């Protein structure tokens, strides 16, 4: 009887895979627990259908991540420029044609036969890949104004297009790109200039919106959130207050799964405020475990970047893993009242299609970089063993294999020649 040749081959950092699986298991449990309260009791929908959809999205995202991690990560750099162009088109179309969701923000595009998706999610990944590519290509001339302009012009344009309807995403993306430029050795005087201009811009925008909230469609919402956050009057019952109540009643061990009482008072208990419900049901113990999982993800991502032989892989890994973990931290800060409400989801845990799928793509690229680094290290070890034990030269076939699979030491030259 002939055996099936189908085999699932998992590559890359195994710890990252384990963290991902633990997070989606927690996601399935907590979304199941909260959906009945938020959908059935308040919106009259079907919690079973909504949960089934979430399970399908978790499965689809896992398959997408598995497929992406089998693609050699250097291929993504080849599409950075065209991806940037497509990003501009998508964001402009979103501002013009975008559907308004529950939060009255035009963040969604509707594609026939596919449905709605949030362009800013894929744009984040494309911009990070582009920044990593430029930093890798121009390391020999990284301090120049020319390289700085190649980075700042698209970064500013992308963030400005996201900004009117999604201030928090634009800010987070800009900060990630700034950090990438910092570790990429961009001239410090340019980075200081960015900080000065950025602070002035934020203060000026807040002042303008406070004077005229209708200047932007979301202007009044931003001002109200910030003023509520800094206000001494805490008597108003806001979403943040409800989240804090959920956390306070959870204690250390929690009320256990399905015993949430605050979910019905949180309009986004299965999404933006899911971390508060996690603590209510699982206690501070599970809340600390969630934080630890994201910190492990950050640590392993940094290790992947350090082990990458080329600049592009290192910058890409660090940018994408920070994107995921920083968003997670912002979500948890909002749930615990540390920062104003932002609308950021908890990666791999919150209910939602677009955010989860593109987070899976980002993590898949990181795993691809890890797999390539593992392969390079295995080849180096094999070559060392052959040299030490047999004292013979590598055969022509092995030399050819080495050249085909070597890291990106000459990445810059190859890309510039193309």
UniProtKB/TrEMBL annotation:
Catalytic class of the enzyme: transferase
A GO biological process held by the record: cell division
Annotated Acidic residues bias: 386-396
This protein's encoding gene: ftsW_11
Transmembrane stretches, start-end: 15-35, 55-76, 82-101, 122-139, 151-183, 190-209, 273-299, 311-336, 348-371
Membrane topology: Multi-pass membrane protein
Comp. bias (Basic and acidic residues): 397-418
Cross-referenced Pfam families: FTSW_RODA_SPOVE
Localization of this protein: Membrane
Gene Ontology cellular component list: cell division site; plasma membrane
InterPro entries in alphabetical order: FtsW/RodA
Enzyme Commission numbers on file: 2.4.99.28
GO MF, one annotated term: lipid-linked peptidoglycan transporter activity
Disordered: annotated segments: 380-418
Reactions mediated catalytically: [GlcNAc-(1->4)-Mur2Ac(oyl-L-Ala-gamma-D-Glu-L-Lys-D-Ala-D-Ala)](n)-di-trans,octa-cis-undecaprenyl diphosphate + beta-D-GlcNAc-(1->4)-Mur2Ac(oyl-L-Ala-gamma-D-Glu-L-Lys-D-Ala-D-Ala)-di-trans,octa-cis-undecaprenyl diphosphate = [GlcNAc-(1->4)-Mur2Ac(oyl-L-Ala-gamma-D-Glu-L-Lys-D-Ala-D-Ala)](n+1)-di-trans,octa-cis-undecaprenyl diphosphate + di-trans,octa-cis-undecaprenyl diphosphate + H(+)
Keywords: Cell shape, Glycosyltransferase, Membrane, Peptidoglycan synthesis, Transferase, Transmembrane, Transmembrane helix
Main localization, broad class: membrane
Name of the protein in its database record: peptidoglycan glycosyltransferase
